Amino acid sequence: MDRKIFLKNGIKAIGIIAAVPTLVTSCESTDEEVSANSCTMSPRETAGPFPIKTPADLVRENIIGNKQGVPLLMKFVIQNVNQGCSPLAGVYVDVWHCDAKGNYSEYSDQLDGNFTNESFLRGRQTTDNNGNASFISIYPGWYPGRTPHLHVEIKDSSNKSLLITQVSFPDTISNTVYATTGYKGTADTNNLNDGIVDNSNLADSVTGNASDGYTLIKTIKVPG
């Protein structure tokens, strides 16, 4: 995908989210609807083998770097379970995920055998008064044994970790994305047979299409 078109689509997606900040649509699971409406902490998950090394150096909304793929705008809503799931302002949201080929930046143990000091597809934002933080990225690829997913860590203003979790995507949308140029075809693992995530990790909403890009919304509930 041409980089200019990619960035244009990303910017357009930001406008969509700004216009409809309260849009939350169920993807596939009734269980997820119940979870989204209950004030219980989001599941704790592993940070995986490739967490962000220096998140304070990666304060940016656009985390694309030099990568190409289907545009993805991610919007996270952070809530405090200790205060009735009210919006949690002023906390850090750290995000990282693999590229279209399934590789992470900053680490040498990758599928393509390459090592890079670049920090693509990693970033940090601070939540606003409504508990919101957003990132411009690409739809992540997949690697053997894992369903397509994002890693997210929430930290307070003192950099104390409040929660590390993962967010997965509807299988039908992933299948559509992975049929496009630059991806590796259908993932070998889906949400049902992944050993880490379950329905409570599924994005609240993933809307859009493979040409213009997608918008992901996920509410994450932490002990603030």
Instruction: Examine the secondary-structure arrangement and name the CATH architecture.
Output: Sandwich
- The H/E string reads HHEEEEEEEHEE
Average pLDDT value?
A: 86
- What structural class results from the helix and strand content? alpha+beta
Tally of separate domains: 1
The major sheet is characterized as: 5 strands, mixed
Share of residues in strands? 25-35%
Helix content: 10-25%
By CATH, the superfamily comes out as: Aromatic compound dioxygenase
Q: How many angstroms separate the termini?
A: 40 Å
CATH class: Mainly Beta
Q: Give the CATH topology.
A: Protocatechuate 3,4-Dioxygenase, subunit A
- What low-confidence regions span 5 or more consecutive residues with pLDDT below 50? 1-35
- The rounded Rg comes to 16 Å
Tell me the number of strands. 9
Number of helices: 3
Dominant shape: globular
3D architecture notes:
It is a single chain. By secondary structure, the chain is α+β, with helices and mostly antiparallel strands. The protein has one domain: Sandwich (Protocatechuate 3,4-Dioxygenase, subunit A). 14% of the residues lie in helices and 26% in strands. Strands 1, 2, 5, 8 and 9 form a five-stranded mixed β-sheet that branches. Strands 4-3-6-7 form a four-stranded antiparallel β-sheet, with no helix packed on it. A hairpin with a 5-residue loop joins β1 and β2. It is globular and about 45 Å long. The protein starts with a helix and ends with a strand.
